[in-house]
Amino acid sequence: MQVPFVDLKSQYLSIKADIDNAISRVIEETAFIGGHYVEEFEKSFAELYGVKHCIAVGNGTDSIYVIMKMLGIGPGDEVITVANSWISSSETITQTGARVVFVDIDPIHYTIDEAQLASKITARTKAILPVHLQGQMCEMDKIMSIAQEHNLYVIEDCAQSHFSEYKGKRAGTIGIAGSFSFYPGKNLGAYGDAGCIITNDSDLALRCKMFARHGALKKHQHEMEGINSRLDGLQASILSAKLPYILEWTEKRRQNAKAYSEALQNVGGVIIPTEREHTKHTYHLYVIRSKQRDELQRFLHEKGVETAVHYPTALPNMACYKYLGHTKDDFPIASQYQDEILSLPMYAELTSEQIEYAAQCIMEFVQVYA
Ligand SMILES: *Cc1c(COP(=O)(O)O)cnc(C)c1O
């Protein structure tokens, strides 16, 4: 049996008519950049989230950058984020001119360790950028109360947590703003690069929209210098075509995660994910841990089960952050887990046979090699 790591084709085939119609409408109208398809998507996404504003941008990385820039974060400031994430979370902090300050992950949930936050705050700290990695929500009550105490912005990186919930609130609706990526492999994916910002702050929304469109809300009236980060009509209409299915797909991911966890819960040497209490994890990734990660990954590959590692090098251990002068001992958990984590195939279209097969292969590995 083959179990690919992602399977974008089967999702396309399941809603082929919707997608094909959406694409051909845009082409017929040549509504390639901006226009009503983008506005319609912004409106539907904001409604689905119960927020006042959704600003579509070119990709998820820009969405983080634009928010920080429009909050006035820049040179001389510090922004705190987590040691294990995709580089966009930290790269965008540097792009604003601010300094990145990393915090280790919590050993159970793999998100920013809120217990270590306070010790990283200085007079220069402007914001905290928690990442709801893998679909797992960060401990938002604690993060928000620390932020309030020190007068800091909280910007939620929701690139991996579409429709995740913390105490009934959706990811991206708790801090000042939430940033989303619609990269094809994300839980809600376009057919190219795409992203958006959500916020209830009308002034911030207006400035983000302006900045992402060359600093102009009206043609040729540039009130500031900005950047070019627009969503195109094709991506917007594809995303709109997928929205009616997204909650069902999200639920399917949760069911698939449950099936994996039931099959793997008593397998020695394999640690399954722990969903934080009072939250809804949406399993962008289903990540297990094993001391023999590399051998397990090779074994699964030979059996036709494709896996991946998110991420093999924790951010502070990357060459690009050498200038911060950290050692692995500064981030012991992230540094240990980078060698143990393994992301199993995870998507709504995964069949129960595929899950069972992948789990059986893991058990076989443990019996023979562990
Ligand atoms: C994918 C991702 C991003 C960036 O999104 P792009 O659309 O690829 O620019 C940011 N943060 C995290 C955690 C991500 O996984």
From TrEMBL:
Entry annotation: catalytic residues: K186 (proton acceptor)
GO molecular function per UniProt: pyridoxal phosphate binding; transaminase activity
SUPFAM superfamilies: PLP-dependent transferases
InterPro entries: DegT/StrS_aminotransferase, PyrdxlP-dep_Trfase, PyrdxlP-dep_Trfase_major, PyrdxlP-dep_Trfase_small
CDD domains: AHBA_syn
The entry's keywords: Pyridoxal phosphate
Highest taxon listed in the record's lineage: Bacteria
Keyword Repressor included in the entry's annotation: no
Gene3D superfamilies: Aspartate Aminotransferase, domain 1, Type I PLP-dependent aspartate aminotransferase-like (Major domain)
An example Gene Ontology biological process: polysaccharide biosynthetic process
KW Ribonucleoprotein (keyword) present: no
Residues where N6-(pyridoxal phosphate)lysine is found: K186
Membership in a protein family: Belongs to the DegT/DnrJ/EryC1 family.
Record protein name field: Putative PLP-dependent enzyme possibly involved in cell wall biogenesis
Higher taxonomy: Bacteria, Pseudomonadati, Bacteroidota, Sphingobacteriia, Sphingobacteriales
